[in-house]
Every structure is written in structure tokens, then in C-alpha cells.
From TrEMBL:
This is Aromatic ring-hydroxylating dioxygenase subunit alpha. The keyword Iron-sulfur applies. PANTHER family: CHOLINE MONOOXYGENASE, CHLOROPLASTIC (PTHR43756:SF5). Residues 28-124 form the Rieske domain. Keywords: 2Fe-2S, Dioxygenase, Iron, Iron-sulfur, Metal-binding, Oxidoreductase. Its cofactor is Fe cation. One of its GO terms (molecular function) is dioxygenase activity. Pfam families: Rieske, Ring_hydroxyl_A. Its EC number is 1.14.13.-. It comes from the Bacteria. Belongs to the bacterial ring-hydroxylating dioxygenase alpha subunit family. InterPro entries: Rieske_2Fe-2S, Rieske_2Fe-2S_sf, Ring_hydroxy_dOase_asu_C_dom, Rng_hydr_dOase-A.
Length: 367
């Protein structure tokens, strides 16, 4: 069966711009971890649907604003993560918890705003939802209800597992020369593991060949619904024991691999309930993606002096697996061309066909 997606969906800059409008500017997009925003004025910055965003802990409440000063559009926060008041480094403007300009140095002398102009000096605010320790942002003026994108059962699953995160995490961002959709399709396709990861990932997984066929039956909602694209899958895996495992609060049964597919661009996995990895495929251009890794262990029962080294070691292992995928996906992207044949799907690729169907509906290309 031929895919409904054409090569143009992966290589055309015009299609990419429409995706920013119809998908990333309309859906709830994962932005970061609540655990990293626990302290006053802790912040993280992201770009969603082409809009620079800052999420900040303001008086104990998480707020999402456009990361541009109302004065001359200078970014309020430069770093990806940090702890700093919501203030512009260019001319010293500061903002309150509602995003209103709070103080403007030498306001009466230098600016002389009218009362109407002064009241309009406010940051654009965006909707925010926190599911467990996962923070989502929607930049649309009228956000869709989050239950339209994620079922109640799925949100409860995310809240449950993310409540086991340690407060420490390690991050990295890997540039890749392929379309973001190729990466999401790749993580849905367990059949490739035996061929692409025979020495890294495949030896850990049991009965991996059966997994793709099982995916199709795990979604209990209408196949045409957006919420059908986000779900959890589990499989048995062999987890090598390490002494530090006894020092954390393990999630779920031992030797289990949890895989959460969060549409449109996140694959969240748990290795034995001991290590958690969030992979996000951020679109940069039609042929470029930033793969963002956030990795943490389960909550510590006691202080683990070697935790930074443990996180670094696991991150390097996950990066090796990504590199194996990256070689093939970049080769695939480089050879896609206008007028080329669409992909041919087998019976096990039901979920890939579902993703394509809902994607075209979101894009307005299918009724």
C-alpha cells in the first residue's frame, strides 16, 4: 500500500512553512521539564511554531511568554535554561508575573508614554499545561482542548511515569539533515531495529519483531482522531544491573521498556523504569531537524555521588543509537526528489498510515 505522503511533504519549504502554521502553531508542543523550573525565576527557552518562547517560574506559577521585550524585541532570556528575573538586558525593562512592563528606567525622561501606550506594554502570553513533570505550550490564540490531542488515559500515564523523574537531568541537541517526520516515523517502526542497531539496541530487546503488529491494536480511539497518534507501548528488555539501581525508586516492573509516542514530535522512553529519555525532533527547515535529548534517572533514595557520570554514560549510549539512525535518515532525505514514488507500506505499518492520514487532515489537505 502506497503512503499518502509524497516526497514534497519532506523536501518542499512551502510545505514546511504550512506545517509551522497548521501543526506546530496549533497543537500542544512539549517544552520542557517541570522539575527544572522548581525554583523562583527558573526559566527555559524554546522556539515553537517559529515563535521564541520563555517559560518562567513567576511567584510559583509557570507562565509562557514570547521571549521578546516589548520595547525593541530583544530576547529577555538568552540561555536555554537558567534562573534570572524576567528583565531585558538591553535597556533594563522588567516585567511582572502577568507579563506587564513593571519598571522602565528613566521612563518619564526618555519615553514619555501616554497612559494608553503604557498599558499596552505587555508580553504576549501563551497557554501552558503541565502533565506530571512534562510542560506543554500552545501558541495559538484559541488553543484546542488538550484532551483533543491526548486522551485522559494517556495523560494519566504520562503524569504517573514522569512523577518518578529525578530533579537532575542532562541535555544535548544534535543537528540532523533530514525532515522531522522521518524521525517520528522511524521510532514508530520497530522492525528496523534488527538491521540498524544489531549491536547496540537489538540485544537488549526481546521479541522486537512482534512489536510493530501490536501497535495497531493498542489505540482505543477512532483511528482518524488526533489523539490516536499518542500512546504508550511496552516490551520486555534485558537491563544490565548496576549498583546504583538500588539507590533509586524504580518505576514499574523490572526489565521493561516503556515507549511513549507523543505526537507530533516526541518519543519518550523508559529503560527498566531506571533511566528516562525524552527525544524531541524539532523542525528547523524542510530538510533539517534538531534532535533534543533530555535524560534523567528515577528519583534518588539517597545521594548518588556518581550521578553526573551515570547520566553522561547513558547519554553517550543513546547518542550512539541515534547516530546509527542518523546515517540512514540523512541518506534517505538526500535522495528524496520531486516526483519520486511515495513509500510502500506493509501490513505492520498501520500506525505510519494513521499518522499520514491525520497529518493531512491537520494540514487541510484531506477532509
Amino acid at each position: 500500500m502506497l503512503s499518502e505522503l509524497q516526497a514534497s511533504h519532506y523536501i518542499d519549504p512551502a510545505v514546511f512553512e504550512r506545517e509551522q502554521t497548521h501543526i506546530f502553531s496549533k497543537l500542544w508542543i512539549f517544552a520542557g521539564l517541570r522539575t527544572l523550573l522548581a525554583e523562583p525565576d527558573a526559566f527555559l527557552t524554546r522556539t515553537i511554531g517559529g515563535i521564541p518562547i520563555v517559560i518562567q517560574n513567576l511567584s510559583g506559577v509557570l507562565k509562557a511568554f514570547e521571549n521578546q521585550c516589548a520595547h525593541r524585541q530583544m530576547p529577555l532570556q538568552f540561555e536555554e535554561y537558567g534562573q534570572r528575573r524576567l528583565a531585558c538586558r538591553y535597556h533594563g525593562w522588567t516585567y511582572d508575573a502577568d507579563g506587564r512592563a513593571k519598571t522602565i528606567p528613566d521612563e518619564q525622561t526618555l519615553y514619555r508614554f501616554t497612559s494608553e501606550e503604557r498599558s499596552s506594554l505587555c508580553l504576549r502570553e501563551f497557554a501552558i499545561e503541565v502533565i506530571g513533570n512534562l510542560v506543554f505550550v500552545n501558541v495559538h490564540e484559541t488553543p484546542i482542548p488538550i484532551e483533543q490531542q491526548f486522551t485522559k488515559e494517556f495523560r494519566e500515564q504520562l503524569a504517573d511515569i514522569s512523577s518518578h523523574f529525578s530533579s537532575q537531568a542532562i541535555h544535548t541537541c544534535v543537528p540532523a539533515r533530514y525532515n522531522w517526520k522521518l524521525n517520528f516515523e522511524n521510532v514508530l517502526d520497530a522492525n528496523h531495529v534488527a538491521y540498524v542497531h544489531p549491536r547496540t539496541f537489538r540485544p537488549l530487546i526481546k521479541n522486537v519483531a512482534a512489536q510493530p503488529a501490536e501497535i495497531a491494536s493498542e489505540t482505543s480511539v477512532d483511528d482518524s482522531e488526533l489523539s490516536s497518534l499518542s500512546f504508550c507501548s511496552t516490551m520486555a528488555m534485558s537491563v544490565q544491573p548496576w549498583p546504583w539501581h538500588a539507590m533509586v525508586e524504580q518505576y514499574g516492573p523490572e526489565d521493561t521498556y516503556h515507549n511513549y509516542f507523543i505526537y507530533p514530535n516526541v518519543n519518550f522512553i523508559s529503560v527498566g523504569g531506571l533511566v528516562f529519555l525524552i527525544q524531541q525532533f524539532d523542525p528547523v527547515a524542510a530538510d533539517r531537524t534538531e534532535v533534543r535529548f533530555t535524560l534523567m534517572t528515577a528519583k534518588e533514595k539517597q545521594r548518588i555521588a556518581a550521578l553526573p557520570a551515570i547520566l553522561w554514560g547513558h547519554l553517550k549510549g543513546e547518542k550512539r543509537v541515534l547516530d546509527e539512525d542518523l546515517v540512514l535518515l540523512e541518506a534517505l532525505q538526500a535522495r528524496l526528489h520531486a516526483g519520486g514514488r511515495p513509500a510502500c507500506h506493509g501490513t505492520y505499518e498501520t500506525q505510519l498510515r494513521r499518522v499520514a492520514d491525520v497529518y493531512l487532515r491537520l494540514m487541510g489537505d484531506k477532509a
